[in-house]
Amino acid sequence: MIPEEKLNSALRQVRWLVLDVDGVLTDGRLYFDNNGNELKTFNTLDGHGIKMLQKSGVRVAIITGRRSAVVERRAHDLGINKLIQGREDKFSALQELFADDPCRLEDIAYVGDDYPDLLVMTRIGCPISVPDAAPPVRERALWITEARGGEGAVREVCDRIMQAQGTFDAALAPYLAPAAPGEH
């Protein structure tokens, strides 16, 4: 386990959060209906955390090894316009992602769970893993979330980035409006 201050220092630097899908935004299981359509379940806590994080100034992108119209729709619904699908070489995909909008590798947090994520995780400033990730991924993570993939891990990451950057209280404030006169 790394010292808390080292983790907070890395989180304060984050300008981009890049996410894997299967095993991070989902529980990693693949569902298919009788017509061969792929189904995925996403956690609403993760989605709202992503929206709050983006409002705080941190941008979000997705790189995934599979192609899915469901992921495209989810990214669109969350206002994520940097999405690369169907890529096992995630580091090359990361380089493409930032070709027109350069970003220092030190300013990127990435959440992964499996071997294809390692090429990115070993090169960026803040590698993060979910607890049910492959052991080599957990070993190379700066931080391992408490929540599992698809069960609020991304929300945990979003909240923690905002806390480290001092933007969490402002992001939460609209939900804590004082009661109107006469309300209890």
UniProtKB/TrEMBL annotation:
SUPFAM superfamilies: HAD-like. Substrate binds at residue 22. GO terms for molecular function: 3-deoxy-manno-octulosonate-8-phosphatase activity; metal ion binding; N-acylneuraminate cytidylyltransferase activity. InterPro entries: CMP-NeuNAc_synthase, HAD-like_sf, HAD_sf, KdsC_fam. Its EC number is 3.1.3.45. Mg(2+) binds at residues 20, 113. GO terms for biological process: lipopolysaccharide biosynthetic process. NCBIfam families: KdsC-phosphatas. Homotetramer. Belongs to the KdsC family. This is 3-deoxy-D-manno-octulosonate 8-phosphate phosphatase KdsC. It comes from Microbulbifer marinus.
